[in-house]
Structures are given as C-alpha cells and as structure tokens.
Amino acid sequence: MSADPLIRVAGLRKTFGNHRVLDGLDLEVHAGEAVAMLGANGAGKTTLLKILATLVRPTRGTAAVAGHDCARDPEAARPHIGLVAHGAYVYEDLTALENLKFWTTLAGLSPTASALAGALASVELERAADERVRTFSAGMKRRLSLARFVLARPRVLLLDEPFSGLDQRAKKWLEEHLASFKAGGGAILMATHSFGRELAVADRLVILAGGAIALDTPRGSLSPDDVQRLYVVHTEDAP
Amino acid sequence: MTFARRAFIVVWKDLLVERRSKETFNALFFFALLLLFVFQFAVGPDRERLAGTLPGLLWLGFILTGLLGLGRTFVVERENDCWEALRLAPGDKSAIYVGKLAGNLLLMFVVEAILVVLFGIFFNLDLAGVLPALVVVIGLGTVAFAAVGTLFAAMTSQVRARELLFPVLLLPVQAPVLLATVKATEAVLLGEPLGSVAHWLKLLGAADVIFVVVGVLTFDFVLEG
C-alpha cells in the first residue's frame, strides 16, 4: 500500500443551515483499497461523497483526491474521480454508444470507434450499443455509467449505493468489476445500506454516526451478522 | 481544438435528443401557429393598422416562442442528474455554454424562419424584397436574445420557481435589444435600406458581443452554483 492516500479527508465539517451533517470527519483510502461506508439515513454518507466529487464545498476541513484539494482545486481533482450516484448520468433518448461518445468527448478524450465499442463490451453492453437508453433496465444504466470510467480511467471511484436496484447477475458483474478496478491500483469509497454480499469487495468498513466516523475496522472475516451488530452498537445512540 | 470539439458534441447531443423527442420543436411550432391566429383576429385586414403593428407582432412571436424554447435548454440535463455530470466534466465549462447557445440559435432560427413564412401567408405580405435586410436584423436580435437566455436558463434551471423566474429575469435585460430590433424591423419592412438603421444595428452588434462574452466568462460560476 502506497504512503500517499488517494482519498484524504481531515477535520471535515459540513453544515446545511443549522444542521451539522459532518463534524470533524477524518478518513484515508489508499490505492488498491476499497472502503464501505455504512450509516443511517442522514448520517452524511452522500454528503461526504459529493464533497469528494467536488459537487459540494465543505464548511471546514479538507478533502483531497489524488493529492488535489476538492474545494480549492476541483478542476485538478476531477480527472481522477469517477462518481456513480443515484442518477445514472445518461440521456434517455441517446443510444448507449452515443451516450458514451458524448461523455468521453466532453471529458476531453478522443475515443476511437473501436475504443468505444471495447468499453461497452467490457461492461457487457456491446449488444445494446445502438439501443436507446430509454429501453434499459437500472442495471444496464449503471453499467453504462461505469463504461465511461473504462475510457477515462479515474483513480478513485465514489459509489453511492451502487448495488441498489440490481439483480443478482448485475450484482455479481459489479463485484467483479470493482475488484478488477481495485486490483488495478484504484481506490473505492462506497456508501451502502447493505450488510451482506455487497460488502465483499470492501477491505475496510467505516460506520458514520453523529457526523464522524464511529468505527473504522478491517472487514476481514466479519459475517453479515457481525456487521449488523457493529452497526447497531455504533448508530443507536447517534443523534 | 478541444474546446471546439467539446462545444460541438454538446450541440450534436442536444440536436439528436431534440430530433428524437421533438418535444421542444413541436411545442414551439404549434404555439407559433396559435399566436398567428390570435394576431390575425386582433389586427384584422386593415393594411394601415397592420403596417404599424407588424414589427411588434413579429418580435412578440419570436420572444414568446424563444422564451418557451430557451426555458427548456437545461430540462434535458435534469434527467438522470446529468447536470451533476456536466459539472464533473473536466475542462473549460464555457464550451458547454457555447454548445448550448449554438443549439438554441439553430432551433430559434428554424422557428423564426417558419414564423416569417407564416406571417407572409397569414397577412398576405410579400417579404421577398426585404428578406435579406430582415435576416440581418433578426439574426442580430436573436443572437443577443439567445446569449442571455441560455445563461439565465442555466442560472434558473436548479431553482424551484424557474418557469416564473426565467422570463422575469430575461425580459428586462433584453429591453434595449427589443427596442432596437423592433425599430430596425419596422424600417426594413417599410423598405428603408439597412444604412438608415445603422445605429440600431451597431447597438445590436455590440449587445451580441457583450452578451456572448459575458456568457462565456460567467458560465463556469453559474454551473458550479
């Protein structure tokens, strides 16, 4: 594991009006590491991901991706970030190929036709390349949003409940895809509500409560029951 | 080169989405048709009355259809949170503005061309002789209108009362442009040469340059919120 983390969060605070969502949060995620983030609704998981994705500015503290401060220098951080949030970031009236061409060109890349086809093949959408996204399932849209990162090659993936709405086959595919990304030296920070199989890709579990990290532990051989027990212990007294 | 490619891909995407959905164009076309019926009933067959009101009616048609079209500029970006992805795209965001503006201009020019033809048919006018001069005035006025409209559409796209806020913000800023376009159009329709309205054309040209430059320079801040 390299000394410099790809994600570094220090003393992070975020308030919305009088409501303090994050309060002095510290976190590091290194290259080749995946961290799963658990927490109740409103614990600040999505807010943390959006701060790291440069979409929301922190009230205090620092958040950096690949050494670039997300608030002060978002343009430098963005090429290193791949965000998969609740929206799939796709246009329903474009085909899969057209969507991929649009987003990669907008990102300043010049993908060839074979590179675009290869990216779609890597997310198993080659047969649906010329179909409009309007006809896609949630899983297919999720895969299409990940296809962008095959070409853009970000170093960090920020995932907000990436397994929700996926069938078993799509979940298995996503697990394998994330494991491959991790093995390639990428860092993953994933918000989830799942205690089970979806955590398999994670090397560490963190539990957010009261705006800070209540628990940061290696996933090791924790069973879903162990995770659930830890979750209850660390979130039941949270405000 | 990258800037041009990025701007072009935005135009390409918007036109492709519009060609397939036809949501904006169909709405604008039928709205324009409806306006013309209302105008014809209001003005009647009186030629003198028509001569005095035609420039205003023509631009009223352009503005009302333009407000509808421009207001929808970023509606497609709300689908699947694409607005967030636009913000996350690395690189100069003004390319997105230029692409959106070009797409809006293309759509507005098509609708305006249809409106001019329909005006000729509905009011039994022979516009062939004044068409080149009319195109110049309409072109200059439309660029200014679309440049500010595209920027304000982005500004209001993420607020709750956007449909209300958009025209309330846009129309006061457009007042000098509208004055110039209506006056220049009036002179052109009366058969006067473009030289006689050079002062209005200079104002429109200056407004075009200023509005486009302001849009390019400020779009990044607008997008970042």
Oligomer, anyone?
Answer: heterodimer
Helix coverage percent of residues of chain B? over 70%
- Average residue pLDDT of chain B: 91
* CATH 4th-level superfamily of one domain in chain A: P-loop containing nucleotide triphosphate hydrolases
- Tally of helical segments of chain A: 7
Task: Report low-confidence residues of chain B grouped into runs of 5 or more.
Answer: none
CATH architecture assignment of one domain in chain A: 3-Layer(aba) Sandwich
Secondary-structure element string of chain B: HHHHHHHHH
Strand content of chain B: under 5%
Structural class call of chain B reads mainly alpha
What is the CATH class name of one domain in chain A? Answer: Alpha Beta
> In terms of per-residue confidence, which ranges of chain A show pLDDT below 50 for 5 or more consecutive residues?
none
* Rg for CA atoms of chain B: 18 Å
Please report the total strand number of chain A as a whole number. 10
Shape of chain A: globular
Strand arrangement in the largest pleated sheet of chain A: 6-7-8-3-9-10
Global shape of chain B: globular
End-to-end distance of chain A: 35 Å
Structure description:
The complex is a heterodimer of chains A (239) and B (225). With 239 residues, chain A is α/β, with parallel strands linked by helices. Chain A is 32% helix and 26% strand. Chain A has helices spanning 45-52, 74-77, 96-106, 113-122, 138-152, 168-183, 224-235, and strands spanning 7-16, 19-29, 34-39, 60-65, 68-69, 81-84, 156-160, 187-191, 204-209, 212-218. A six-stranded mixed sheet of chain A has the order 6-7-8-3-9-10, sandwiched between helices. In chain A, strands 2-1-4-5 form a four-stranded antiparallel sheet. The longest helix of chain A is centred in the C-terminal third of the chain and has 16 residues, at 168-183. The model of chain A has no long low-confidence stretch (mean pLDDT 90). In chain B, 83% of the residues lie in helices and 0% in strands. The longest helix of chain B is centred in the middle third of the chain and has 29 residues, at 94-122. In chain B, helix 1 crosses helix 6 (94-122), helix 7 (131-156) packs antiparallel against helix 8 and helix 8 (162-189) packs antiparallel against helix 9. Chain B has helices at residues 2-21, 23-43, 47-71, 75-78, 82-88, 94-122, 131-156, 162-189, 198-224. The radius of gyration of chain B is 18 Å and the shape is globular. Chain B is an all-alpha fold. The interface between A and B is medium-sized, with 29 and 25 residues.
